[in-house]
Amino acid sequence: MRKKCAVTWWPRSVDQVALSPESVENCPRRLVIVQYLKPKALHYFIPIMDSMAKEHLEADWSPNKQIINGSLCVPVNIPGTAYNRAIKAGKVIRQEFKQVIKQMKEELPENTEKVSRDFLTNTLLALDENGRFMDDMLIVTKIMALIIGGHETTTTSITFMMKYLAEYPHVYSESKWRLQFARSKGPNDLLNWDDIMKKYSWNVACENLRLTPPLAGTFRNATDDCTYAGFTIPKGWKILWSPYSTHKNPEYFPDPEKFDPLRFEGNGPAPYTFVPFGGGPRICPGREYARLKILVFIHNLVTRFKWEKVIPDEKINYKPAPNPAEGLPVYLKPHNHKY
């Protein structure tokens, strides 16, 4: 049996910003939420996600109207730094969630017999091995971890899908053509699982994730001396694992800088060469949620708008997630009719 020589590790700045000083030691990094993120559970949320995407585009896009940056900084809390601002933002967000929890607790006694489908309500109702409810701050910590892990990564992916669809009009046209099934729906009909499980759309999303993974990498701590590729990694050293070297390796992806969704046709890349969600037992539990969120939003965007980049050669910054330097401003062009 192969010896395990590294375990998950995160810098102290992540714990201090995303979590809270009083709960860092007691919060498990691997959240017990997988049951809420499996495809069967996510079916229920597709119409809700679709409705929210439609409302957002109608309210904020049609009229033509990120605490993550400070979470991977040197953890020196000096006023004016990104780390200091992130610490303050984390406190504000935690306080907001505490108010939400307080309000939900006041409403729960009237609805305890109703089976809830959402993570927060079920967490509030759950009892530990001693028959006690979970501490509010620990619940907030879990929610913060979900927000950091699930929101920033998917919004980054959606941003870069817009970038690539603007840069490759033939991919945009193919995506739009493949989404013509939406014409058969009534104006008030919402998406379902079958509607968005269209392979070409996910091929486009995967090629986007290959070229621009939303995370530069994840951390590990060496639990013993180990050797990799001829290099010795001493016990206690910190390791940064990055998907970029694999995703840009021409041995696995010929002409690796080319945006080509057809790479993912058929069986797709070889195992462990395409790893935006990691792999093995530590693979991201929210990968199906991310898939739905990206596809639902992009579906609504492509079937409603065409767009062009305002700054054709806009630079990309990494701090630590990739970000267009100017926020990717675009010219939105609504289609003449709605699907």
TrEMBL record:
This is Cytochrome P450. Belongs to the cytochrome P450 family. InterPro entries: Cyt_P450, Cyt_P450_CS, Cyt_P450_E_grp-I, Cyt_P450_sf. PANTHER family: BETA-AMYRIN 28-OXIDASE-LIKE, CYTOCHROME P450 26. Heme binds at residue 284. The keyword Phosphoprotein does not apply. Its cofactor is heme. It is found in: Membrane. It is a single-pass membrane protein. One of its GO terms (biological process) is sterol metabolic process. Keywords: Heme, Iron, Membrane, Metal-binding, Monooxygenase, Oxidoreductase, Transmembrane, Transmembrane helix. One of its GO terms (cellular component) is membrane. One of its GO terms (molecular function) is monooxygenase activity. SUPFAM superfamilies: Cytochrome P450. PROSITE patterns: CYTOCHROME_P450 (PS00086). Its main location: membrane. It comes from Quercus rubra.
